Amino acid sequence: MRQVAIGIDVGGTNTAIGVVDHEGNILYEKKPQMATPQKRENPTMTGAVSEELIEKYIANLSSEIKTAIETVQQINPEIEVVGIGIGAPNGNYYTGNIENAANLPFVGAVAFADLIQANFPAIKHIKLTNDANAAALGEMIYGGGKGMKNFLMITLGTGLGSGLIVDGDLVYGADGFAGEVGHTTLIPNGRLCGCGGYGHLEAYCSATGIKRTVYELLTQYNATESELAKVPYSDMTAKIVYDAAENGDPIAKEVFQNTGELLGRSLADAVHYLSPEAIFLFGGAAAAGEYIFKPTKESMERHLLPVFRNKVKILPSKLKEGSVAIIGASALVWKEMEKAK
Amino acid sequence: MRQVAIGIDVGGTNTAIGVVDHEGNILYEKKPQMATPQKRENPTMTGAVSEELIEKYIANLSSEIKTAIETVQQINPEIEVVGIGIGAPNGNYYTGNIENAANLPFVGAVAFADLIQANFPAIKHIKLTNDANAAALGEMIYGGGKGMKNFLMITLGTGLGSGLIVDGDLVYGADGFAGEVGHTTLIPNGRLCGCGGYGHLEAYCSATGIKRTVYELLTQYNATESELAKVPYSDMTAKIVYDAAENGDPIAKEVFQNTGELLGRSLADAVHYLSPEAIFLFGGAAAAGEYIFKPTKESMERHLLPVFRNKVKILPSKLKEGSVAIIGASALVWKEMEKAK
Fold first, then answer.
1. CA B288, CA B294: separation in Å to the nearest integer?
2. What residues contact A107, with CB distance under 8 A and at least 6 apart?
3. Residues A276-313: pLDDT tens digits?
């Protein structure tokens, strides 16, 4: 038998479904992705409406999982599905619940893993966590974290997600929600964060943070000559800033310099907590390469106690941008099998 | 047989030695404590002098350990010594070395656990870590952390030490030195920390930090009428500030309020990392009770993401001030026995 895992990622817009082998090869992926129920379509959400939405969503999702299994088994009848890993916002590893996720139209806690399990009683390992945690497991099982017992995964997307690997496993904490480094305070009373807090790491070091820093610097220098000054606020992306830096735009370069300076200080804090072997950066902002890695590394080293200096690697993730959601979620399954041994 | 553990604490001035049973009762304690070799007496430290000092120190310490064992066995011949736990600055759990400890007159890394082991070949578990980590284990084995799998220990002494318990064991990290929360950045470009860094938690939330805040506030308000204004800088202690607060001194109260505000923000960061069940505060500053616990708790809650609110307890340590060094170190032994099972 050839063992495979199913990876599911519950995103705010779409839900990704795929089948992954132990080497991280995606054997099947549903395209186009199925839609996640939308909050904006359900403005007057009640418990009853929420339950109905969930019921329908779970039925559709289960049907898609069955299609996925059938498709890969048609190609190779020897394939055995050993588990289903689910990445979801506010996903609680211990309970399998999705709890009060701000971007999903569900009321309260949804027993997501149990609902899927009910439709697949023969599948042993059905586990759920949030997407950044899943990505960290993906890095450990398939990526640059192979063989490492202590490392951190930082995902630099619209927000800043993190997964903390300590002694060979994810840190879930007492309640299953550990690893929210993006919401630690970087600048007291600083920028308003998406969560309502102030000065959080995520408000500075993320694609959104980079965008905000662009306009902060344009404002600071009144830099009308910068090519970034031609782009409306709503259109600005990390990629545009990267291209401007490649063209030698000094504002763009300073944006990455400042972002790296702040990220490096925060990573130094992380090292003082957990003393990891490496810190992996993933996502659009990390794609800016040395523009972001160099100042981050320099700042981190400068903020470390002597005992930690020149020990911790900052590395680009080895996971691919387009497949991380499925890959990460599927890694949960292999980790559970390892624990069950 | 009645099993006991030896606890040793290598302090900057003295070395404490005791024998502890599984319930945390100290059966024997060397009094007065033996002296730790002093840096100031060895100003021109070389490798050769350092080796000589260590050799003599290990010989004396081993002789004191023998005395301790003989003493408890004379009282009860059934006693079996199952291990020696050592708390030491820059103590590396993995290697058993004391590495580049700033306050000890030793050059480079000293293979401390191995040197002790050579004198006690029959004792199976000889382990070493730093004092705050040892205190966290003490809290878990004997104190308020019994039965908890995820909690943090914060020791508020001259500095701020920390030990992080994740999934039932201490976080040691990749290199054995994890858990230096005192040196995370609280105020960017803030107060000079003892380590040479700026704005670290330890520079604000420790006995020393409290003292500095006293004079910051006296200066701010030119508060000549405060009873704290009568105390020279070099004589100020957390106890004096506590007594002044008890007398209704508004500066003293504001000192604790500000300290708790800052500590609470930092603990919120810690919760975002590790989501512990509880955070234990230990030491002189923690003895200020509600003056420090109330603002700390309020500030922590205010800085938490909704998902973490009203979940994490801030508790006074159940370990006794005078015995924590020996008790904590001895806890290492029981933890090793648990792991060996």
1. 10
2. A45, A46, A47, A50
3. 999 999 998 888 999 999 999 999 999 999 999 999 99
pLDDT, tens digit, 9 for 90 and up, residues A99-156 = 988 888 888 899 999 999 999 999 999 999 999 999 999 999 999 999 999 999 999 9
**CB count in 10 Å sphere of residue A248:** 9
ipTM: 0.96
Q: Tell me: do B90 and B17 sit in the same domain.
A: yes
Angle at A16 between CA A94 and CA A45, to 5 degrees: 70
B147 lies within 8 A of chain A by CB: no
Same domain? For B25 and B72 the reply is yes
**What b-and-e string marks burial along A48-75, b requiring 16 or more CB atoms within 10 Å of the CB?**
eebeebbeebbeebeebbeebbeebeee
Could you tell me if A147 lies within 8 Å of chain B, comparing CB atoms?
A: no
Distance CA B291, CA B268 (A): 19
B308 interface with A at CB cutoff 8 Å: yes
Q: Which helix (H) or strand (E) holds B282?
A: strand B278-282
CA distance A43 to A41: 6
CATH code of the domain covering residue A331: 3.30.420.40
In B4-63, the residues whose Cβ lies within 8 Å of chain A are none
Same domain (yes/no): B124, B172: no
Q: Tell whether B9 and B101 lie within a shared domain.
A: yes
Chain A positions in Cβ-Cβ contact with residue B95 (cut-off 8 Å): none
In angstroms, rounded to a whole number, what is the distance separating the alpha carbons of residues B118 and B57?
14
